[in-house]
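Fold it.
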Amino acid sequence: MIRVTLLLVLIAMARAEAQPFGQASFDTVRAADVYTEALAFMEPRILDPLPVSTLTLWGLRGLSAIDPDLSLIVKDGRLRLANRGRSVSDLAVPKEDTASLWAVAAATLSGAGSNSSIPVQRAGTQGVIRAFFDELFNHLDPYSRYIPPSEAEEDIGRRAGRGGLGLTLGRQGNQIVAQSVIAESPAAMAGIRPGDAIVSVSGFDTIGLEPSAVASLIAGPEGTSLTITWRGRDRKPRSAFVVRALVPPETVFAERAADILVVRLTAFSTNTDTQLAHALQDGMAAVRPPVGIILDLRGNRGGLVRSAVQAADTFLPQGVIVTAAGRAAASNHIWRSTEGELAAGVPLVVMVDGRTASAAEILAAALADRGRGVVVGSTTLGKGLVQTIDPLPDGGELFVTWSRLLAPRGWPLQGLGVLPQVCTSLGAESLRRQLALLGTGSHILNQAVASHRAVRAPVPNGQVLTMRNVCPAAEGREADMETARTLIQNPTAYATALLPALTDAP
């Protein structure tokens, strides 16, 4: 971690400022440390090169967000902070564009703002730091952000995962019941089944409690234990001493619909790819293997990139799945599929909608670009940026976008989203015409899809809107499933909609 502490200098600066409101002084040392670390981390990593001075000046506008009476003026080589036009601090612009010098200037001006403004003083050091980053990131991308110390610990816990038993709880009358039990979870191994009533957790009676309250009793650090008592269908109470574990949620739901295997992926967790592989293996091992597979990614907001990559690898032969491209060397990476694929040669249709995002878009784009599947639905959300995390001296965290995700053919997921080969959001008449033409070997969206795949980052906002309007984002609909079935049952339509196979990056 980069940390420059100019303690003596900043203490002298702080003492030189008056403290007219008699409240706690602004911690310039702490602010300078945080700003130095953050600016030094961001400058070489953000997607588009920007000087430290620009980043700092953006951040300092956060003082005006707290108190509109404060204004920052940069003129004639001076940094001037004014309150209703009256100067409260006047500094020389740093001679070098370095994180440490600009951080000291920002901390000093923030301290002066605190001493001259009741709203800023009430915000406190942490509030000013947060406003600095909020304003700075308003000028960058939608996903870079600052998480203050009060939230960072909880966020770290969410990323690491929290232990539990693998139960989903609900209410039935005045009882708390197990709505679902994840296979091979601690609850399943203890003998709890869906529909069983949870009587108590470590001695706490569940009668009258909300399902969320009981879930909180069950959740805890991985490896810790609890005693749970439940009542099955035979009404006999049972108890078990159970050890909490990190239980990935069930995210893969497969069912056979006539001669087609329908697999719904709700998110990408640590074992989604494994669940998917098992579903495909089981489906293909049936006495009558499916004639086609429908992969439902509608409403899937994403999750772990690694899981999405491995899910794509399940279907694909060797080649590129997705590329991360940024300015910093460490931000660049190419994920590839390996030899061997499940359900090779079986027609595959991927359903998406306007809520399909992030890791789900990686999977849909890879299957479409590589010519393995036909995407049906509407244009997806378009979240294709990768963040790196920097722990800060105040205990907070900085999430900085440092790379773009590119589909196998080289186009950016961010903003554009995945454009389906068959669009269902243009209305029934348009869909009927698309399918009729596909059945004759003609693809009405062929040129639009080709233009979409030829775009390279960065893409102007106007062009993004034009390309997305070809198939407007919308929620999933019944027509998606009907269209997917039609494509599988009509080999000519399916082959016409399919993109040419791609074995490597362009």
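DSSP finds 17 helices and 20 strands in the chain.
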